[in-house]
Amino acid sequence: MRRTFIVTDYGADASGHRLSTPAIQSALDAAHEAGGGDVVLSPGRYLSGTLIVRSGVRLHLEAGAMLAASPDRRHYPRRRTRVAGVEMIWPLGLLTVIDADDAHIDGSGTIDGQGEPWWNAYWGTDHLGGMRARYTGLGLRWAVDYDCERPRNVLVFNSSRVSVSGLRIVRSPFWNVHVCYSDRVDLSDLTIEDNPGPSSDGIDIDSSTRVRVRDCRIAVNDDDICIKSGRDADGRRVGRPSSDIEVSDCAIGAGAGITLGSEISGGMHDISFHGIRMVGTDEGIRLKSAPGRAGVVERVTFSDVSMRDVGTCFSFNTDWNPSYSSCRVPEGMGTRVPEVWRALTEPESNPGIRNDPGLFRDLHLNGITADPAHPVGSAFTVKAPPETAPFTDFTFSDLDIPATSPGSIRGARSWSFDRCAIRTAGERPDAALNAETLTRMSMEEPAS
């Protein structure tokens, strides 16, 4: 019979005044050593650093239970994982599933990353200072996100048959939920909100397979849901694509929208999004890459996506954020640089790859609509060199997008439109840009 392990029986402090990491970890370890079991956080506030959920264990947060992250970086062991597309030594997450099979985290409690001290270290209390400002002044904007080591709220790494469900996840120091090098992962009924800090992505799926995301509500500072597969030379060395991913019936609020990239060097394929509702999102459907990524993203479907008060409906860019994507150690810093700097600045031996942003092909976008009373700002913002045309073989059908501006398309090839209308706010439906006009836009350079 499966046993239940109550963390207060192991000395956990439900008042939140004392650090409960050793006590909760003891309960988790006991469940694992018993061949599997349920570890329960009863109502209360539990202050903790990294907790590792091992094979066969279910961690359950009851209603009224809050797991609050310690603000002390010493409470997060540093292990070799992957962060933003590069393998490196970095802090583990508050809740970490690593090298496990059949591990689960659920309940109706809250995970609170208490991110303010970490955010302030990155960009200062005024969002203009901190490590970000210092590094930018030194010509190291590209390195600060890696060097300012901030824990993730939930990390699933090199694991299989994992689920995370039912929880409220807030104030992450860095990404909220990161799934990397994992298979058969289910994320469901999550509320990810109150995340104004830098790079507080909602869900990042990274070089993983058979991942399902459903019935989640997400509002963050950066990407709401993002698919990744490694950055530049290090991503190609690992060579693990993201594939067989389905995202369904999710509500997306504040943030940068649904993103593929910019780390695409390992490739992505067979990905679908459907039943997505976006309200107040900066961008809707976002493809981003940069010179040197050189991955292939293919067989991706978006269907039944509605937008309200969204900045840009389709935002595609293969020269995304050059100050972050282009890495060069400034002169005078010598050769003794951190490992991650070496990985980021490693010269590409193949000259054909150095400027190759990769290829997005065989994408199908069907049933994308916007609210006429709350139109998108721009229908298309597509930026890529027209001679390379990295956005190819896209099909658009059943688009109905009221927009302040139709926007522009540059760097597309073999786009087709069926039953599509883009109209500026206030225009009659019969005055909208039709499929013929949209097809012509996607073949011209520049177009607007």
Blueprint (SSEs and pairs):
Layout: E1 3-6, E2 15-19, H1 21-33, E3 37-41, E4 44-48, E5 51-52, E6 57-61, E7 65-69, E8 78-83, E9 86-91, E10 95-98, E11 101-107, E12 110-112, H2 116-123, H3 130-137, H4 141-147, E13 154-157, E14 160-165, E15 168-170, E16 177-180, E17 183-188, E18 191-193, E19 203-206, E20 209-214, E21 217-218, E22 225-228, H5 232-238, E23 242-252, E24 258-260, E25 268-279, E26 283-288, E27 296-308, E28 312-317, H6 322-325, H7 339-345, E29 359-370, E30 376-383, E31 391-397, E32 400-410, E33 412-418, E34 421-424, H8 435-443
Parallel strand pairs: 1-3, 2-4, 3-6, 4-7, 5-10, 6-11, 7-12, 10-13, 11-14, 12-15, 13-16, 14-17, 15-18, 16-19, 17-20, 18-21, 19-22, 20-23, 21-23, 22-24, 23-25, 24-26, 25-27, 26-28, 27-29, 28-30, 29-31, 30-32, 31-33, 32-34
Antiparallel strand pairs: 8-9
Helix pairs in contact: 2-3, 3-4
Mean pLDDT: 94
Strand count, sense and closure of the main sheet?
20 strands, parallel
What are the segments in which pLDDT stays under 50 over at least 5 consecutive residues? none
* Fraction of residues in helix: 10-25%
Strand content: 35-45%
* Count of helix runs: 8
Report the span from N to C terminus. 66 Å
Q: Nearest-angstrom radius of gyration?
A: 22 Å
Based on DSSP secondary structure assignment, what is the total number of beta strands? 34
Q: What structural class should be given to the helix and strand makeup?
A: mainly beta
